[in-house]
Amino acid sequence: MNTGPATHEVTNQAPPLAPYDASDDTALLEGLRREGAGWAEEELRRLGRQAGSVQAQEWAELANRHEPELRTHDRYGNRVDEVEFHPSWHHLMRTAIAEGLAASPWADDRPGAHVARSAGGLVWGHTEAGHGCPTSMTYAAVPALRRQPELAKVYEPLLTSREYEPGLRVPSEKRGLLAGMGMTEKQGGSDVRTNTTTATPTAEPGVYTLRGHKWFTSAPMCDVFLVLAQAPGGLSCFLVPRVLPDGTRNTFRIQRLKDKLGNRSNASSEPEFDGTVAWLVGPEGQGVKTIIEMVNCTRLDCVMMSAALMRKSLVEAGHHVRHRSAFGARLVDQPAMRNVLADLALESEAATTLTLRLAGAADRAIRGDAGESAFRRIATAVGKYWVTKRGPAFTAEALECLGGNGYVEDSGMPRHYREAPLLSIWEGSGNVNALDVLRALSREPGTAEALFAELALARGADARLDAAVTRLKNRLPEASQTTARRLVEQTALTLQASLLVRHAPPAVADAFCATRLGGDWGYAFGTLPEAADLGTIVERALPGGD
Q1: Contact 451, 298 (CB under 8 A)
Q2: Where do transmembrane segments lie in this chain (predicted)?
């Protein structure tokens, strides 16, 4: 049957990006080797090809289109409190766990194991961000749990397993476990010391019962949770399993799942505890001190996921402008667009390089390096504040590179844009992290010494950097809560510049110092100065070269 001539032929559209290699990132691979995990490069490249595959990208899209569903009761009226996920979520989780992106580095004695995990997150983050929440919390739970050795002996081998086994069963009978976290309550938020959940001791030493309501607990399908509650001795940390050792369900009533702006694939919940059995982790009254190591780990993951999101958005934008033409030339060859792309590339490389430096500090601190521990203490909070703050503006600009195409859900860019603000909010919003930097500087003098020792490694290489370090030193004595954000911003930019001066090509380091430190920059991306070597910057950043 003749339906008549077609009205038009589709032209001047970019082909699908997938399949592509998400590990084809020069700054990432250089940082991997530099921070002591070069031995993981072959595995990282394999994971990069898988992350950029048609299948993995489809899993990401489907996991967000088919959101988790809460089932509070079964057909007979029995309380079950189950969360059901689309099969694509489980494919993503299974891969992440098997590739060591959860807690397995804690069972790996190789130097650089934690760096390899962060690099894997930077690559696998090209799929979708939601399932990174349970893998991150599982990773972060181990050092906190080690404060109670008898519990760590039981649970750590299962948390560090590379086996993904969903479903609620007796933890000790599973091949692998996931851990969640429940700290915040609606009357307190980040001020966890105002929590009202109570912990009552039982006749069994170390065992308590909890009563209270948590405002934000991710992710409720996990096997065990680290929870803060008020014990007789003060705010304390507890381990709460969903299923008790005798096979009965612990009381963990999920009231609802959060209807979030982004991170739609991941279930975040409000659970109620009522006679919920819990085991004390660490001494009574030291709940914040016990769980803070978990927070340090998850803050690093927020930096890592922001950097991954930037890189993914940059790759999408770069792919589009390479294939799209306007006014007689490819977009990538037009000076205004090239300036935008180069500016985004600078920001992305600075975020990736800082992420891997923080991961290296964490790896060496865990192995007993006191200097790296002090640097990690302050630099992680600085990075958490700044890199996550840059994410929303970055993804918005990358989306704009696609124009109207980027505003359509099919492009995937709206999902990235909705995800970006999350990483600044979770694990302490901007003010919380800025004030944490002030706290470290005032209470732990070694942190400032470690920071300036790091900056001194680039002394003399760039006059703008040297001047920025001097300004930073002069600002420290005047630091206050009012000016905390400005101080942390200056610290972050100075630290990123020092890393790029030492490790990036001159074109990248010079453009970064000229703009972020020297003031030769506008207020939006795409305002690099005329002297910037845009071609070299873009060629280094885009997969396969320009």
Answers
A1: no
A2: none
With 60 as the cut, is the pLDDT of residue 128 above it?
A: yes
Integer CA distances (angstroms), 275 to 208, 210, 255, in order: 9, 5, 16
The tens digit of pLDDT for each residue in 307-346 reads 999 999 999 999 999 999 999 999 999 999 999 999 999 9
Q: State the DSSP code for 14.
A: P
Q: Are 430 and 386 in contact (CB under 8 A)?
A: no
Residue type, 262: G
Compute the C-alpha angle 160/81/257, nearest 5°. 85
In contact, 35 and 112? CB cutoff 8 Å: yes
- Using an 8 Å Cβ cutoff, are 178 and 158 in contact? no
Q: Return the closest-CA partner of residue 19 out of 66, 55, 63.
A: 55
pTM across the whole model: 0.96
* Closest by Cα among 382, 395, 504 to 513: 504
Region 185-196 average pLDDT: 80
- The amino acid occupying position 171 is P
Query: Is-cis flag, bond preceding 157, omega within 30?
Result: no
* CA pair distance 453, 474, nearest whole angstrom: 16
Instruction: Note every long-range contact of 32-35, with CB atoms under 8 Å and residues 24 or more positions apart, other chains counting.
Output: 32/115, 32/116, 32/119, 32/356, 34/356, 34/360, 34/503, 35/112, 35/115, 35/356, 35/357, 35/359, 35/360, 35/363
Q: In whole angstroms, how large is the CA radius of gyration of the chain?
A: 24
Question: Is the distance from CB of 344 to CB of 314 less than 8 angstroms?
Answer: yes
Omega into 361 within 30° of 0, i.e. cis? no
Separation CA 278–CA 293 (nearest Å): 20
Contact 378, 487 (CB under 8 A): no
Q: Which two tokens stand for residue 222?
A: 């996990």
In three-state form (DSSP H/G/I as H, E/B as E, the rest C), the secondary structure along 32-46 is HHHCCCHHHHHHHHH
pLDDT tens track for 511-521: 999 999 999 99
d(CA 246, CA 169) in angstroms, rounded, equals 10
Whether residue 118 contacts residue 300, with contact meaning beta carbons closer than 8 Å, is answered with yes
β-strands 224-231, 179-182 pairing: parallel
Q: CA torsion sign, 344 to 349 to 354 to 360?
A: positive
User: Tokens 């732990």 — which residue?
Assistant: 444
Residues with Cβ < 8 Å from 112, sequence gap 6 or more? 35, 36, 37, 38, 39, 40, 360, 363
Q: Which helix (H) or strand (E) holds 439?
A: helix 430-443
Q: CB neighbours (10 Å) of residue 478?
A: 8
Q: Which parts of 74-218 are beta strand (E)?
A: 79-84, 179-182, 198-201, 207-213, 217-218
Are 247 and 239 a contacting pair, CB within 8 Å? no
